[in-house]
Each structure stands twice: as structure tokens, then as C-alpha cells.
Records
---
Amino acid sequence: MAGQHRSGEPGRPKTGDMGRRRFLGYLIAAPTLAVGVKLGEAGFDPEPAVAEAGLPSVLPEVQEVYDLSDLLLDSTRPTANLITVVVNEDGTVSFAMPRSENGQGVTTMAAMLIAEEMDIPVEDVKVEPADARPELLFNQQTQGSNTAITMYTPIRVAAALARGRLLEAAAIKLGDEATNLRTRAGRVISKAGSSIPFAELAAEAASTETREALTQLKPREEYTVIGTEQRRDDIVAAVTGQKTYTTDIDFPEALPTMIARPPTIKGTVESVNNLDQVKNMPGVSDVVTISTDASPRTGPSPSGVAVRARTFGHCIEAIRALDITWGPGSVDGESDESILRQIRDAQAPFNAPSPTPLDQAAGEVPLVTEPLGNVGPTEAIEEEFVFYWRSNAAMEPNVAVADVREDSAEVWTPTQVPIWTQQQVAEELGLPVGKVTVHVMRGGGGFGRRLFNEAPLEAVRVSKQTGKPVRLMWHRADECRAGRAHPMCTSRIRATYSKSLGKVVSFEQRHTGVSTDYTEVFGEMLTSNAARLPFSNELSVSQSVFYLTVNVPYDFGGIVLGYNEIFAFDKFATGSVRNLNNADVRPAQELMVDRLAAKLGKDRLEFRLAHLEEGRAKRVLEKVRDAGEWGRELPKGVAQGVAVHEEYKGVMAVLAEVDARPRTANRQIRGATTGPRVTRVTMAVDVGLPINPLGLRAQLEGGIMTGISHVFTGSLHLRDGNFQEASWDDYRYTRHWNAPPEVNIIVIPPEGERIGGAGEFAVGASTAAVASAYAAASKTMPTTFPIGHEKGLPFTVKSFEPPVPPSPKDGLRAYPAPSAAKGAFNPAR
Amino acid sequence: MPKHTFKVNGRQVTVDIEDDTRLLWVLRDVLGITGPKYGCGINVCKACTSHINGKAFNPCSVPVSKIGPDDEITTIEGLPATVGKDLHPMQEAWIDRDVPQCGYCQPGQIMAAVDKVREVKHKGGTITDEDIDEIRNMCACGTYFRIREAIKQGAEGM
């Protein structure tokens, strides 16, 4: 029965309760019951309670940061860096979560963990993203799919402490022993049957002093909430239009603000030639020249002209009217072709099966090498795959509301890195960090885009210059052309195999690309500054991330992985797109696995099964083989593809079916990029303990849609120093007409308490499986992705000057509207 | 400044604003009706999809001067009232299927779905995968599969 298993006396766990770990937390002096735990060190016994997976090992020693940073002095107070759970007078429980909620469902997950531990209904737990809290150090950032992994234990410890304290308060009221009491549905219940709601205990359970306390957690086998399907905490608000995003906040003085941006990447403003005319346009309040740089105080070169006006419509009209003389950008004249040449010049040679010693400076590190022995005669296959630029834009553009005063500033933005946002804003404004408040808003999609601070920095620059609050939003065209892109890259693979042994002898992959900006990687300024040092971004971060996230799940003898990159981290604006390297590395691998299977005369799926190293991986592959009916009869031009993937402590297999028959690929939907259709996806996933299978499935489905985009159509074309796409009609992410009509996701039932990440997990595997299916259906070997990229521009390019397109006027006649797409386009043709 | 009068979600409103201001900004920035979202401003992403006199349209691409005093605009906020309930059947299906992730595009998705089902029903048919394939509303989280299921479910209640 729920509740009877634990000590009801925080601070005095039963000594006889062997094998149960105790956890340390704090009772906090407050008007109602408040408890806290330290993030990252919630465990009490020597075995670490919180897996710190997801954080690369180059994480600096925390002690170094304490010593270096005056601004973090506060964090030396023992209770400063607590996450706190508060029981309110109405019996509800509040938790300010140091994570961003951009649709991943992490607030819902947190509510479930608290509800589980406290025995209250999930809907009585209110979780919102916390404001920036610099004392949390590295513990307030949302990336690398690490939220479930890092928050699982600390949140439960806080909730368990709160429950224990409620039991104590109830014991006094009932004249009973706390150990005789249990909790259910938000009430404390005695053996005699009397009960008290938490609401009546919230004030009495409050501590008058802040002090340490110990608690134990509910055993796994007694879970009734964790592992069940829970709908999103904001579901009703989301479907009724009541959910408040940054630009929706009620702050009438914060007028809409938009920025005219240069026609080439990282271009500059030389002069504004009609400033007075534009200032006098209807509705316009201010026009100011600002820096749009992603770093604070980077010098005097202005790179945008901001318009603050009554509505965003007035901003757009004013931006279109501005006459600006633009200076050069950072990549003027560069194109896909010129970048590809430079990447190829930098590609490292293959050298398996006898890898040379480490050559750190060249950025080539063999990841795994195993003695090969004498295998007799071998044959080799070799291929180069090219992956073009992909945008990480979300549906909600970059946004920030800012109110900069003389000695303080307040910012609202859906940042994934609030501490870094606060620090960068403070540096930009020359204010102490404590004078900057950063409110973390629920956002309209993250995918890596909100790991950087362009929007809040621009907003505070405009607010400071005008002396007025601003509601800044990027135009969709800015999202494509000034926003961050997953860098263009190549992945070269050489595999050798022995026909006589029927085995793969070596597998070498050399990945080379434009540098990925990892200055955000720890969501904190000191480490970010370290990443800016020469070679530091690539050698300390890019490569670490590569080697920590990339692997070959198959036993292929000698495996060598190498990664190197070109350009400084900020030549282009780059970042991750719902995944780091695996969206490219894995499809390249799996296509080669298909070829190896063919060379060795094996079935593609059975070949994988025979070479998988891990039992869990074999199991998920067998699941999709059976549930997805591998090898079933399909018409000519329709085929299956498969991939297996391990990442974020989980493992999955994906079986996709692609219909590439002409009548499907050439189907006509007005203004749509149709092409081959993914008709069915079967996925089996083992994430250990799925906290909320419903939310997990949503994340995985989303990853499938991104994978489909990566294979067929979703890319940016670089020409003459800028990207040609400028909206959702030319940047062709998966749409309803591309989405698979059948998706079946099998979640392996929970085993133990191993927690895995989900946000990015499905992207690499889905991209790989869809690419594999397309290759089989079309009987081709696709080597450039998306496959439509090199087929020219099937759309009318929108203007660069002015930098935003005109707002249409024919919306009453045109539904659905025309698009820039030149008729139906089949990327495979 | 010109005055513009029309009905939004059953309420008569009058705004003083330039003729060519697109209706989306009148709704969002002047009237504070923030359910319709900005996603592109050029009628391709459909995040602002709302209804005019019961038909879907995109207010980002309609100057306010083209809205007459008798025109009735319905945004996601006013959708439940069109069926006299707290929630429209399509919203109930969206909740049942836990469709949203970030949620930003979902008001537009729901308004487009209601319009598509009405159109199909008007022609005497039932909603098919091919009908859903024609919906243009963009979603970057990738909720398309659950939307597909929810539309079929919501259509049954309409």
C-alpha cells in the first residue's frame, strides 16, 4: 500500500532499513512547507545518485569556477543552489524547474515525479520554468537530451522530504506516530481511518529554520504514476489559444520590434540613408542601428537596423522602406560548391587498418582500434556522403521582451541557457549579474536554436538605446538567413570485409565539416569564454561531443572514427538541429551497412542482428522485424529500410517503408514538395524506465518527421554569401503531405531505474532508416542529403534587399495560399 | 486614422489603424487576441489560421480594410462558442490524443482541421488521409501523425 514503506521521520531514517539509500535535502524556513535539494549532488551515499550523463568529460572542476568567479560567490552559501518544492496553502505543490520547456514535456515529467513521491494527483502539481539562477552553475541548461537523466533523482528527493514533513505535522495533529500514517491522494491517513488534507498541513509543516534533513525514496516497485501515460500539463491552454508565449505577454509598453538584417551572412550597416523618412512612417516609434552579434560588446560594427512600432505589421512596412548601405559579411561570395571544395581539402585520409598515433592538432583521433589479426584477403568499399545546411528554426521565431532601466534590466525569453543569457545581458549592459532578471518563458520549439542569445541581446540593445521596453521578434526570413544552421559536412566511410570469413574486418569513418559553434555548451559564461580560445572550440568541445555521442553499434572489427572541421566557430552561425552529429554520421553508416550486407550476400536486417554487440539492441531490432513485417511482399518501387541506434543511454531500431513509385513521387498537391512518401514507420525503443510513455512517443514521432526532412527536402542553399531560403514554402521541412500515415512506436516496458533521454534520440535513426528504405525502393545509392538539394532551386528566391518579403493582401481570395514553390516538385527526380 | 469595425468572437470591435495593417497584427498587437500565431507573415505556414464567416483564412495576409462591419472573425479563442460548449469536438480530440508538443502551431492546426472537415462534410464525404494531406499548416515539432488521428476523431463529433 502506498506510503507505508518509508520512514516518516526525516532526519532519522530507520537504521534497520538496509539497502535503502538515504538522500540529503533541506527544510527551508518559509511561510508554508518548502524543501530543497542540491542539483547534481542529491545522493547521500558514496554511489552517485544522479547520473551526470550528457555532460562531456571536459566539464571543468566546479572548484575552479568557484575560485575564478566573483559573481558566483553566492553559490558558496550551503542552501543557495537548491531546487525547491513548495506545498501551498491550498494543498497544491509548486516547483520552479531549472529547465526550459519548448515542447519536450519536461514540466509534465517533473509534475509526475513529484506526484509519485508525494501521493498527490498530477494535476495538483504546478511546474514552471525557473528564472535564471546563476548559483546553479551548470545545472540550468536544457540540451543534450539530459533533463530526464539529471532531474529524475533530485526532484523525487525534494518531494519525499516534503511528504515526510507533512507526515510529521499530521502526527502531531492526530496524536499519532508518523510511522503509523500513510499518504494517499493529497491526504495523510491514519490507521484508524481519520485523514487530513495536505492543504491543512502546509503551514504547520513549515520549518522555522533552514536545516538539513534526510529522506528515502519510494521503491521502484511501488510506482503508480511514473511509467503511466500523462497528457501535457499545458494541453488545455495550448488547444484553446490561452498558452502564453513570449510575444503574448501582457506588457503594453513593450512595443513590437523587428530588425532589418544584412543581405549577406554577418554583413554590416555602413549607413542608413533615409532614417528620418522611416522614423516618420505611421506607427513607428523608434529606428536605431544596433549590433546583432551573438556576443555581448563585440565592438562598434553595427549589423542591423531595429524598428520599434505600434504593431509588427508597421515594423515590416518600415523595414521594407529602409534604404541601407550594407558592408561586407563574413562569407561573401561563398556557395555550397566553394564550401564543399574547402571541406574536401581538409578531409583526413583513410588509414585503417593501421591507424597512425594520435594527431591532436589535426583533429584526428581514432576512437576504437582493435587488433585485426590475420584475416586473409579482403575487399573494400568506400563512399563519400555530403550533408548540406539545415535550419534549426522552430515555429516560434527568436523572441525576447526586454525592459532595460538605468541600473537594472528584465528580460523574458524562452532560452535553453538562462544563466548564460543573464550573464551575457549583464555584460552587454555593464550591469552586475544580480541586476538582470531573466524570466524563462515556455517556448514554441527549441531544437538547439534557443541555446544562443541573439534575441535577448538584440532586445536589450534596442531597449537601452531607445530607453523603452521592447517586444522583439525575428521575421521568418531572418530565421532562415540570419538564424543558425547545422553545418554542412561530409562523412567518408571505408569498410573492408572478408568474403571467405563472411565478416567485416574494418570500418573507418572520417567526418569533416564547417565548425559547429559550441560556445553554449555548458550554458555558462566562463566555460563559454574558454571555448572561444583559438582551437578550443574544435579541440576541446566539438571533438569531445563527437566522440561522446557517435559510435558504431556493430561488431565490425577495427573501428576508426575521425572528426575535423574548417573555419572559426563564428564564421557561419551554426548549431545543432535537434541532434548533433548523428543525423549525418548514422545515415552514412547504415547505408554502408546495407552495402556490406549485399557484398556478403546477407539479408540487411539479419546481417545487422548478427553483428550487433548489445543484447538490448538485438531485442529492439527483433521487435521491429516482427511488428514491422520485415521482408513482406511490397510492390516494385516500395521498399523497407532499417537502422539501429544507441544514444542518450537508450537504444532503438527503426523500420521504415518508402514508396518511390512515380505515381506517388510525382503526385500533385498545389505548391507542395511531394516526392517519395514514407508510408509506414515502426520503431522500437528501450530507454530503460520511460517516465511518461505518451510524451516519449511524441518526442520520437517528432524525430521521425525531422529525419524525413533530412532525407528528402529540408535544407538551406548557400549562394553568394547567404542562404536562399526565407520561409516555410522554400525551406521544405516535412509537411502533412510528407508525413507517414502509419506510425507504430513500441516502448519496451520499464526495466530498473535507468533513465534515458528522448529529445534528439529518434533523428539519426529515422534519417538512417528512411534513407535505407529510399535506397532500396529507388535502387540507387543516395550520397547527398537531402536528396533534392542538388536539383536546383525549385522556388522563387525572395528578395535580400529589402530583407523581408511583402505582406500579401489577397488572403481572402487565396486559401490555401500560393507558395514560392514552382509547382509540385519531386526531389528524387 | 481610419476606424474599422467588425465582429471578433461574437464581440463588436472598433479599431483606429491604417487601412493596410494586416488583420493578424490588429488581432494580436491591438486587440490582444493572441491565439492566432505569427509563423511567416506571408500565408504559407498557416499558424494564424482563423475563420471569417465560418471559412478558414489567414489574417496575416488580409488588410484590415477588407474586413467589413458584418464580417465575423473567429479565432481559436472563439471556436468553442460556435458549438455552444467549453470545447469544440476538434479541441477535445486534440486533448484526447495529446497532440501538442510546443503548441505554437496548434491553434492554427485546429482551425484548419475544422475547416477541412466542414468542407468534406459539406460535399457529403468523410475525412480521408488524402484530405489531410492537403492541409498546409506547418509544425516543426513534427506532431503530424497525432494531428492525423485527432482530425479523424474530431470529425466524428462534428
---
Amino acid sequence: MPWWFWAIVAAIVVLTYLVATIGRLERLHARVEAARAILDSHLLRRSAVVLELAASGLLDPATSLLLATAAHRARTAAGTDREAEESALSVALRAAFDDEDGDLVALLIADPSARSLVEELEAVTTKIPLARRFHNDAVRATLAVRRHRLVRWLRLAHRFAEPTSFEMDDDPPAALARLALIRSGPHEDWPTSRPA
Amino acid sequence: MRVGLVCPYTWDVPGGVQGHIRDLAETLQSFGHDVSVITPADDEDALPEYAVSAGRAVPVPYNGSVARLCFGVLSAGRVRRWLREGGFDVVHVHEPAAPSLGLLACWAADDPLVGTFHTSISRSRAMVAAYPILQTALEKIHGRVAVSEAARRTLVEHLGGDAVLIPNGVHVGRFADAEPLPGWPGDGGAIGFLGRLDEPRKGLAVLLEAFHRVAEHRPTTRLLIAGPGDVDQVRRSLDSDIRDRITFLGRVSEQDKVRMLHSVDVYVAPNTGGESFGVVLLEAMAAGTPVVASDLDAFRTVLDGGRAGRLFPPGDSERLARVLLELLDDEAQRVQLAAAGRERVRSYDWPVVARAVVRVYETVALDLSPLAEG
């Protein structure tokens, strides 16, 4: 075979690799963007529900003020402050709901008008850790490909902004997590003692 | 929402992953979701109405053992068509790192993907070699789920990244009530075991040795054993004085398994290793039978660190015998353990587990409109 044949073969191999890698980069950055949009929407939903709860008059004024302030700060924070303020909201929620002296969740779900709000809060506080983990996982996978030597040399990822992970305290209040079990209901058919 | 589930292993062969997918599919349907499963199958006519076949799985050696897998041009084509015609909001791939349908679906899908990792595997050279092939397919998965800490650790160590933990489920209601087998549990106390007789890691030998000691102290205590394997061989290895006190049921139906669990005073899981979850412990707990299990990571998690069942050092038949004697003599403790077990197993009830899975779907699916939840 003449030399130019091998040169063409090599060019095709390199081109195929480049096209595949560009496709991969596009896909990964799109995944990060989608994950970030979902995380954002869950975070906004959370502060909205907390504000609504605080304004409902169902809570004592001190708890209401504490939660409303934290939710408002989380909503309006920008840049890296956002991570700190969202974490502060998580801490405030735990302080309010995991109070040993009074079971706020039991109090609220007894009230029909508050029940749906609490259930929505439970849903969104458990979805935030999922969304954040999936987002950070996408960021990690994307950065791994961006670090490939060929990708750096040929500046293939040049047109995409470098994604960063989102770090925050997102542990939901334990009392809300238990709500999932209350909702599923006890098994009435369980005998109280075992049949002999 | 429309959910597509991808099963990597033959539907008609009993197995943990297949059972998980069946129960998940049926629970999601009961929530009002639209579910379709694609799976390898030997007999297409025996599939439930929500499942479609991707062809037959063939036994091939994979990573040190023979696995029945489904791959090739024909299967890939069927997966692609299923994805195209399904119009799914989310596609949930099980065991995506196995060279079977899950991996094919990862390649072909443009839908939001969720992947559940079931098994834990030790690191091997072969895995390292396969890494780049897997990586491009697995990075299409938007949300990764692991059923156990062991499975999650495997994922973190081999493939990088992270996963959320959502455990296996059990239909608690199905185990709650059943008629014990005739003549059981009897007055002298009865111990139960479920598992393959000839698989050393299931630990039957440990239990039999412990039963020798128990039998010396309690002349009427009996042992009930269910599971496939060579009964005659096990029976021949037993001393004549305890042989008559052990009953073998062989392979049991799902229904008889429930009755078997209700027929004993204590359930024992003497496994010596290799367990990454322990569904059978959940089933015993759902039946309200006190559980004694080896202190393996997976079992300790399910038993809430020993609060919902007793633990003993794996392989230590002497300690097992002591725990059994103590429990058989102490009805109050058995009642307390049964109650703790029932309370514990509620968080593994399928509706609770499936709702957690739906949360994952809602998190990866781009459509952010409110979705029906059960």
C-alpha cells in the first residue's frame, strides 16, 4: 500500500474520534445544564413552600419569622452565596421540624389546610439531595472528559463554560422523612400476636 | 408518567433482579403510571402483558462465571424499536454495567435515563480494561441508584461518580398473614432456614452444627429447611439422633415460602458472605418472625444494627447456638424482636420504595409539571 493510503486511514480514524468526542462533550454539557435547571427549580420550589407555610399563620410567630427570613435569603442569594444560604435554610428547617419538645409535623398534618403544604415540603426536601447528587455526578463526568489531553490541546470544550459542582447541606428534617412512612399507612391486617 | 424498564436477565428464570423489576413495575402501575418492560425471555407467551421480549439470552462466560445475557444485532434492534415506539418520559435501566440489554439501552436511548446497580463485584483487571467502553454508555445515565451500600461502593470504586441509595422492596402485606404448615411450629420451638442447600455461602453447615448443640439442650426443638439442593446428601451427613427432627421442604412456591416463615419461631440467615442485600430477612420480618443473622454489612443494615433482629459473628456456630437457645427460651424477647422487625420493614415496603424511585424519575425527567404520585 502506498503511504497516502495509510495517511487517509489515519485521518479518518482521527476525525471519527474527534466527531465522537465532540458529540460526547455536547451530550455531557447538556446533561449538566438539564440537571442544574432541575436542581434550581427544586430549590426555588422549596423556598416558595417555606414562605407560604410561614405566611399561613399555622406556625408560631418566631418559627414563621425564622423560616421566612431563611427562605427569603435563599431565594435572593446569588453566586457562591447561594450555596451558603440554601444550606442555612436546610438548617433552619431542621431546627423547626426536628424540635424534640413539640412535633410540628404531627400538628400540621392534623390541619387539612396545612397537610398538602407539609407533604409538598416533604417531597421537595427529599428531591433536592437527589437532584444535587445527579448534578454533581454529571459535573464530575463532564470534567473528566474535559481533562483529556486531546480535548485540552484542540480546545474542543472551548465553547462550553466549565461546570462547577453545587455544594450545600441538603439533609431534610428527620421528622419530614418519617412522613413518607405515615403516608404509606400501617398494615391493619397484621395480627397483634402470632397465630399459634 | 410513561416508564420503560429494562431487565438484563431472562424473565422466566427466578432471580433477585427480575423479581425487583416485576414488583417495581406492578407497584408503579398501581400508582397509575404507564409501564413497559423489555427483557430477554425463553417463552414469550409466558410474559405478563406489560413486558415485551428482546429475544433469548444465551449462557456465556462473563467475569469469572457463566451468565445468561442478551446481546447482538437482533436484540439491539428490538431495544431501539421499543424505545422509539414507547415514547417514554423516563427509561429505567437495571444493571447497566452488565453486557446485556441495559447497556444496549444506554447506547440507543435519548430519553432521560435512570440506572439501578444491584450487584457488588470485586475489582478485576477485566473491569479496568472494560472501563472506557462502559464509560461512554454509562455517562448517559442522568440518575444512578444503588440498592445497597455494597453496590454503591462498587460503583464509586470502579466507575467513579456517585449514586443514591434506594433499597430493595418487599410486599409487606403479602407476608403479613398465613396459615402455618400443619403441625408447625409445635411446642418445643421451631427454627427455619431458606436457601440453596449446596451453596456453601448460604451457611447451612453453620446452622446444622449450631442445631446439634441446640438439640442437646432442647429435646423437642425442630428445624425446617426450604430450598433447592440434594436433600439426600445433606440428610446422610447428619447424625441419626437429629435427622428425624429436621424437615426438608425442597424448593417451595412463593405461597409456601410465606407459610414456612409463619411456621417457625426463629428464622436464621447463617450466610458466610457474598450477600449484598438480604431480601429474605425482610420477608421474615414482614411475616413477624424474629430473625437471627450473620453480622454481614448488608444484614446489619437491614436489621438496623441489631435492633430489629439478632446478629452473630459469621460462621460462629457456637454463638449462633447460644443466641438460638436464649431466644427459644424467651418468648418476651421474641415478641419484642418481631414487633421491632415489623416496624423496621415498613420502610422497605414496595409502595414506600417505589415512591422513592418515582422521586428519582421526577428529578431526571425534564418535564417539571407536577406528576401523579400514589
